[in-house]
Each structure stands twice: as structure tokens, then as C-alpha cells.
Amino acid sequence: MLAFFALFAAALSVGAAEARPAFAQDALRIAAVVNDDVISIHDLAMRVALLLATTAVYAGSMNPGPDYGTSEEAKTMLESTVAQMKADKEGTIQKINNGEIKDKDLYPYCGGPDGMVTAHPDPKVRAMSLKDLKDKKGKAFGQELYEKAEEGEVAEVEYMWPRPGEEEPVQKVAYVTKVDDQVCAVGYYKEE
To answer: Across-strand partners of 162?
Structure first.
């Protein structure tokens, strides 16, 4: 009965398919020891608890929680946006404005030569001047985006900005470049 419990608990706790053989082997070793009456029930419970805790940590590392974009994903999205802008500028601007180019909490945004936002998934932001944007601490990050943007180069600008759907600003890093007459960026939020 205890051997069955150990096997069942191990099988239920496995989070990733590639981890099953190792966990199954651990459960079989526990069951074999129990069948030989080498350990006490307390020791068995401790081993099963340790196995479950290890599995939970392993499974948690495979799915760390909220879906936030990474630095690499932001840079890849900017590169993709640049390629799309070069192929079809107006179509890409429309896709950005319609929220069709986004992943997790990442999205591209662009400003025209006059500084006005030309592409952003939030219509309220599209009515603003990108050049004049300041974060909650007063940093003129919009001006810095324009100053650092160069065709064929990717620069970084740090500022404070709320995540989509949230009010409180957090540290954000934007990768920025220039495509034709557009300054385009994709920012990711730094983990706290």
C-alpha cells in the first residue's frame, strides 16, 4: 500500500514529460525500500515530501508565473518590426495600432519626424508627442529615444512606465532604432 502511494504521489507531481523517467526511478527506489521494510513510515513521508517539493520547484522553474517578455524577445520583436516596416510601412503601422504585433507584455511603438506617435496599440498614446513624453520621475525619455535612434543601429533607453493594465510605473528598457522617417522601439520591463 505504501509503495503504491509513493509511486502515485511521484507520478502526480511530475511537471515535465522529460523528467518522468528520473522521478519514476526515484519512486521505484522508495517503493523497493518500503517493501524491504528498511525505512520507517516517517522516513517514507519525508522522502515523498522532498520528492514533491523538488518537483514543484522544477515545475515552477518551467513556468515562472506571469508572461513577461524578455530582453531578447524585445530585441527580436524590434528587428521583426523593422523588417515589416521596410516591406510595408503603412501596413505595419496599422498592425501595430490594431494590436496585431504584440507578445506577452511586449509591443512596438513608433513616432514620426514631427515627434508625434504614429504607431502604438493604445489609442490614447497615439494622440501624444513621443518626443515630449516624460516618465513619472520627470525623465524626458521620448527626447532620448529620438536622440539615440539611428538607422541600422539599436540603442537602449531606460525609463519608468506602467505595465499594460497597471497604474504603478516600473523600470522599463526600450530598444530603439530608426526606420526611414520613423523612430521605432520595443521595451521590456525589468524584473524587480
So the answer is: 169
